[in-house]
Write a structure and sequence with these properties.
The protein is mainly α. It has one domain (3-314): Na+/H+ antiporter like fold (Up-down Bundle). It is 78% helix and 0% strand. The longest helix is centred in the middle third of the chain and has 30 residues, at 126-155. The termini are close together.
């Protein structure tokens, strides 16, 4: 395996972390304010991410073998969720904290952190970004919006009607991100000549919008980043970080070998699988009264740990 890839991933994570820390500094200096975070997050999820997804999928037709990547990251996420449940039981945690541990130890921040890292770690490979889109939206995003609310309801204090339980699923299928996935898959079947003739200005505009991906991701994370007190939850943090950023990428790597994936696909799979906890975990934990404060502290701490853990795990697994 080319060691230059390892170095590039390390440099990318270091640069990404530096920009996030700069945003934290700007927040302290009141150049940007915490309340701006919701605006940046909406721009990221409602405009920029759909633009990136649509352009990538439209330009690169999907091959059936790529769905092995989706299966691998899905299996790794589900296995991590069950492992965190078992460890939570062994630790004699209460139900709410077991739920919080499951929500922060299963599916990672593949869109918010994964896309920018893939963009810069594989700058000359559009196929790598296409793989990342499929992994993120089908292997991570869809399970989050289906399983996370279910975990929150089972282990939290609040139960709801069937109509309310389906709300998050409906929102996902109506979201610009999911619509972009569908449109991108449809557009990928249009011959390249027809795309160039009819849609070139449209895709050029989307490419311009997509250029804001890394900056908006850093702004969103930097403004959200809060290091809450970890008193009493250090054991949970260690377990969550090990499952999310060590066990999960290891299991993804094992599957990559099992499925005989190519070198670059294995690298993308391991990198996406090693992402820290998704920021949606605390949202569902809070919504269903499933130790929301604990979930938030774990997620934000995992993001900080990931600055060192992601390049380390990637280097150890991809040799």
């Amino acid at each position: 395996m080319n060691s230059s890839v390892d170095i590039h991933v390390f440099e990318t994570v270091a640069a990404f972390s530096t920009v996030i820390l700069l945003v934290v500094l700007l927040k302290r200096l009141q150049v940007v304010k915490e309340e701006n975070g919701s605006l940046f997050a909406r721009l990221l999820t409602q405009v920029v991410l759909p633009a990136v997804i649509l352009t990538q999928l439209a330009a690169h037709p999907i091959h059936p073998r790529q769905f092995l990547l989706v299966a691998a990251v899905f299996v790794a996420g589900i296995a991590s969720m069950f492992l965190s449940y078992i460890i939570g039981r062994l630790m004699r945690l209460d139900r709410a904290k077991i739920g919080a541990l499951m929500l922060t130890s299963s599916f990672g921040s593949s869109a918010l952190l994964g896309y920018p890292l893939i963009t810069y770690a594989f700058p000359h490979s559009p196929e790598a970004m296409t793989d990342a889109v499929l992994l993120s939206e089908l292997g991570v995003g869809l399970p989050i919006f289906t399983l996370a609310p279910l975990v929150g309801m089972i282990f939290g204090e609040e139960s709801e009607t069937y109509e309310t339980r389906t709300k998050f699923m409906v929102q996902y299928f109506r979201s610009p991100i999911f619509i972009a996935v569908v449109l991108g898959l449809v557009a990928s079947q249009i011959p390249t000549e027809a795309q160039s003739l009819m849609l070139a200005p449209f895709f050029e505009a989307l490419t311009m919008i997509g250029g804001a991906l890394t900056l908006l991701a850093c702004l969103t994370l930097g403004l959200q980043l809060k290091l809450a007190s970890l008193k009493g939850i250090w054991p949970l943090l260690i377990v969550s970080a090990l499952i999310q950023m060590a066990f999960q990428p290891w299991l993804a790597h094992v599957q990559a070998d099992l499925y005989h994936l190519g070198a670059e696909q294995s690298q993308v799979l391991v990198l996406i699988a090693s992402m820290p906890s998704a920021v949606l975990g605390p949202v569902f934990a809070t919504r269903y009264k499933c130790a929301g404060d604990t979930a938030s502290a774990l997620v934000m701490s995992n993001i900080v740990i990931s600055m060192a853990a992601v390049p380390l795990v990637f280097t150890l697994l991809i040799r």
